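G., before I forget:
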Amino acid sequence: MANWLHDAQYSLVVFTLFIQATVGAFWVLLVSDFLKRRAPDKVQDAFTRIGTYILIPMTVIGLIFSTTHLGRPMYAWRALKHFETSWMSREIWATGAFFGLIALYTYLWYKRMEDGELRRLIGVVTGLVGAFAVLTQAMIYTIPGRPMWNHWSTLVLFVASVLILGPLAVATAYSFAWGRVIDLKDGEETVRRSHRRLGLTLLAGAVTYGVGLAARVGYLAAGAAAAGSAPGARGAAAVGAETVKTALWIGQGIMDQYGWLLNLQVLLGIGLPAVLAVALWWLHKRGASLKLCNGLIAAGLVLVLVGELAGRALFYLTGKPWF
Amino acid sequence: MTTTQMGFHADMEKCIGCKCCEAACKDFYRMPPEIRWRKVRSFEMGEFPSALRVHLSLACNHCEDPACMKGCPVEAYTKRDKDGLVIHDPTACIGCQYCTWTCPYGVPQFDPEQGVVSKCNGCYQRIDEGLMPRCVESCLTGALTFGDVDQHAATQRQVVREAPGFPDPSITNASTRFAWPLKGPQPEHQMKVAPPKEGDHHG
């Protein structure tokens, strides 16, 4: 294993991204569930049902990777013990509960489809638990022990991953279902409508990600500049609260060292979703082939995931021990 | 409720950077090569022509509000009521390494071989027997001492909560206290100094 991958906490990169993607995917499916509440739509129902297929596998992948960074993974269950003060313990509770609830929600789609009110009620609870799981993930890193992460941009970046990856994963599932499980003609309007909504969500996600990343880059750069402006050696000014500047200077140095990860993050994690949103709008306006749009979405998911992986790896790399 | 808070006092004027404290600790607890519960950091202080070479011996700060204990998901950390020492139980640890992030002072260390974290426990078994921690006992110059934090003022030349490069002690109310070198910049001036580099003997 390459050293930098180990330092980048690749297990936690995959864990956090897959759980965030699942939360985003679940929100999309729940909104679909609510939107057709007053206007029943069997085709939309069929798509939403198929969309739920991806929830459990994505969470399972995330949960498996949550244990691979542990020194003693067989005792992972012990992490449930300290809910009172530990955000990590709260994260395990929330993620475990989220997993159980999406399993129940999926079950209700397949076995009790007629009971929409109960399913939506469970769905709202699941959506809130998912939101809490993302909050716990962000709070884990918002700690004075690692000043490079101790900033509001951590939460914003995590939410942006939810908004970008989840809808893309659902749209890709729809693409595969269309023409295979659902009739091409019956499903066309639903797929076109989902693309329009996907475009808006991707734009919102790209803006959120852009704001979060700009804030984070600015936070590290400002700290590094403050450390560098002290007389004497760069990185001086190190007494009491001043030491935070040294930490930020170290974080900035790592950001410079791994500039290629930052480039991938900006191009594929922010730029590509925005371009994809505009491309979908333009292609649908010109009545382009749905197969072309679906192909773009599937390719987009893969490339955006690469950008998100790069960005999350850089996030972990910058949180280096600093004293 | 902790009645007495015990803690280390490190005098940078007296410390000569011999690392006997580090070695004594490692030897006593039979630690693997890469794990050091006590670390001596060396750095420069002040400016030419009156620059100083200073050494800072640090281990666990047995904080009054330990971030490691708060963040640990498995309750592997406890804080003793009678002396405030923060104890880590490796048998409870699952090796999540979260404490290595939450501790601002970089105290807990992960041992990949054992799959668990470990840290200085303040030699609590020795304390219970009325002995001093091994590092304190081994210090050649008396630079490192241990006792009731409130009593340091009566026995030490200077008692300061901050040291060069040492992260903000107010985050966790660290119990370690310091005395700065007599001739160098004094803490009240908040002088800018180069960050200490662990194990660096050449500036």
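Confidence is low (pLDDT under 50) at residues 231-237 of chain A. The CA atoms of residues 164 and 205 of chain A lie 5 Å apart.

More on Monday.
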